[in-house]
Write a structure and sequence with these properties.
The protein is an alpha/beta fold and 186 residues long. Helices cover 39% and strands 14% of the residues. The longest helix is centred in the C-terminal third of the chain and has 25 residues, at 161-185. The structure holds ligand FNR. Ligand FNR binds next to helix 1.
Length: 186
């Protein structure tokens, strides 16, 4: 069956390397896995006081995630942690309490940085939030991409053959993870 994956990108930049990575992963994914970016830059900051009359962007975001078969997080690292943009999306998705659109969604996290550490801090801080939200996150292969500035060719393809192979394996493993989790639910 075709599975529709909501991809959340943790950078607002038009020229974001992580956005490029998300698009490259869409091209490397197995036929059955359709990756689509769900935009999060327009989400107002989460505030319980306005939940009763939730802003339209919150509702639209929650509906898109709820309709998906899984969620893939593609993120840079800001100050060794999750960019506020992406944390806010998780917070918005997690509420109202007990009605999180993220609960049970098969997920994976991949981080990319122009630096050498590959966003490890962001990757694991994000996992901490996902654990408490009962989101089954694929444990491995772990994916921390360093030197992200030299990863892409002019067309946005992956220029480094070893990394391209790795990303193919990563997204293939995620496709299997999605099936495993969805089967367990049925
Ligand atoms: C960064 N950057 C960064 N990089 C890193 O590897 N570890 C870090 O802790 C940080 N911290 C950080 C904080 C802030 C506020 C900014 C704006 C940037 C650099 C970051 O990885 C780089 O800007 C990436 O290119 C951002 O990802 P996109 O926009 O290319 O996807």
């Amino acid at each position: 069956p075709t599975r529709h994956i909501a991809v959340l990108v943790g950078s607002p930049r038009k020229a974001s390397l992580n956005r490029k990575l998300a698009l490259a992963l869409a091209g490397l994914a197995p036929e059955s896995l359709k990756l689509g970016i769900v935009e999060i830059t327009g989400l107002p900051f989460y505030n319980e006081e306005i939940e009763a009359e939730a802003p339209a962007p919150w509702t639209a975001f929650r509906e898109q995630v709820a309709a998906s078969d899984g969620v893939l997080f593609v993120t840079p690292e800001y100050n060794r942690s999750v960019p506020a943009l992406l944390k806010n999306a998780v917070d918005v998705g997690s509420r109202p309490y007990g009605k999180s659109c993220l609960t049970g969604k098969p997920a994976a996290v991949i981080s990319l940085s122009p630096g050498a550490i590959g966003g490890f801090g962001a990757n694991h801080h994000l996992r901490q939030s996902l654990m408490c939200l009962d989101v089954p996150v694929m444990a491995g292969p772990e994916a921390y991409l360093g030197n992200g500035g030299s990863l892409f060719d002019e067309q946005g393809g992956i220029a480094v053959p070893g990394t391209k192979d790795f990303l193919g394996k990563f997204i293939g493993a995620y496709a299997k993870w999605v099936e495993t989790i969805l089967a367990g639910r049925g």
